[in-house]
Description:
By secondary structure, the chain is of the alpha+beta class. The protein has seven helices and four strands.
Amino acid sequence: MAHINEKAVARIREICASYASENTPLMMILSDIQNEFGYIPLEVQEIVSEEIGVSVADIYGVVTFYSFFSLEPKGKYIIGVCLGTACYVKGAGPVLDKFSEILGIKPGETTADGLFTLDALRCIGACGIAPAVTINGKVYPKVKVSDVPGIIDSYKNA
Ligand code: FES
């Protein structure tokens, strides 16, 4: 959407209009855009600002505060490594480092081929199977550093 086309602009205006009766529609509008387009770059924030009269600075503040929203496109596979306390003490740090090393990206980044995004997560409620990793919602239990290459390969060859 970096080259945002007319169809996308029209759709964004339509999403904004659909919440016209709401007093505070910003979160709902941003959620819809995130779900539909996968990210919310500045040029899209400017359109939302025009439509609903909230400043771009305020919209930017919301988009960057909530990890659910993204300024950049996400990869096809979103890898989340839990760094909550239970996972951390069971070795999630080196697991995250291994994903980072193999993929050549830091947490929060996406590989150049658009295949993987790497995220560090807070507790995902699976402490009993720490350290836990999620990929597009699938949970991998008790992940060891030595498991990481195989996990990545299984998605590369999917
Ligand atoms: S700390 Fe990782 S699932 Fe709870």
